[in-house]
Amino acid sequence: MAERLQKVMAQAGVASRRKAESMITDGEVKVNGKVVKELGTKVTDKDTIIVNGVPISKEEHVYYLLYKPRGVVTTVKDDKKRKTVLDFFENVSERIYPVGRLDYDTSGLLLLTNDGELDNRLTHPKYEFEKNYVAKVKGIVSNNDLKQLRVGVMIDDKKSAPAKVKLIKTNEDAKTSIVSLTIHEGRNHQVKKMMSAVGHSVMKLSRESYGFLTLQGLQPGEWRRLKPHEVEELKKKVGLK
Ligand code: URA
């Protein structure tokens, strides 16, 4: 069956579908020996697809849940030679990559997969899952701050969607607070920007859950494979089943 080139690349675990599109338009992809830059190109099993000199193959899809520690970058490679989330998966042979991202100094739950289609859906605003974060912030968070976060605050000239917010505790001596925020958007530095918008800079941030998935049973730096029923449920929630 003929399928779009970017879809086949995503299914082969090369990159998300969106990233595959930019690789095509950037001239990184050859079909049967010729560079193809048109996004509408259809290919079949008989076509040879080479991405940056490497032929693609259909890999079995794999799904991992990592407890990302602080001080690790969520990229596949880092120019500054810092530790990356992939360094925890040295013995995994599939070409996996992170679903979305966590900041260098943020810890918590991160999914990794070679399933470009699922990655695409999970990071699409239409399907964004609820994610829970716990933030330690400077200052004592007031009821009014919480109210503003619940309604939505301006970040980068766009209002954030209403968040579920709870004050967990405050330390009057140290003048710090711990806040739980549940959001479904995934904008860059979203939680840090939301907290800054109400006057509290984030000192420490951790993602505790991603939809129905939690960090239970894992220590920072540890990972596990998703169970088949968890993969099924993720797919169902984003309309892939
Ligand atoms: N929000 C942030 O500010 N940083 C993260 O890493 C995740 C969400």
Q: Would you kindly provide a written description of the structure presented here, covering whatever features stand out?
A:
- This protein is an alpha+beta fold and 241 residues long.
- The protein folds into three domains: 3-55, RNA-binding S4 domain (Structural Genomics Hypothetical 15.5 Kd Protein In mrcA-pckA Intergenic Region, Chain A, Roll), CATH 3.10.290; 63-113 and 218-237, Alpha-Beta Plaits (2-Layer Sandwich), CATH 3.30.70.580; 130-210, 2-Layer Sandwich (Alpha-Beta Plaits).
- The chain is 21% helix and 30% strand.
- The chain is built from six helices and 17 strands.
- The protein has helices spanning 5-11, 17-25, 116-122, 143-151, 190-197, 228-237; strands at 3-4, 29-31, 34-35, 42-43, 49-51, 54-55, 63-68, 97-98, 106-113, 131-138, 154-155, 158-159, 164-171, 176-183, 202-210, 213-214, 223-225.
- The strands form four sheets. Strands 7, 8, 9, 10, 13, 14, 15, 16 and 17 form a nine-stranded mixed β-sheet that branches. Strands 3-2-5-6 form a four-stranded antiparallel β-sheet. A two-stranded antiparallel sheet has the order 1-4.
- Strand 15 and strand 16 (213-214) form a beta hairpin.
- The longest helix is centred in the C-terminal third of the chain and has 10 residues, at 228-237.
- The two termini are 20 Å apart.
- The relative contact order is 0.15.
- The model has no long low-confidence stretch (mean pLDDT 93).
- Bound molecules: uracil (URA).
- Uracil (URA) is lined by residues 102-103, 106, 189-192, 205.
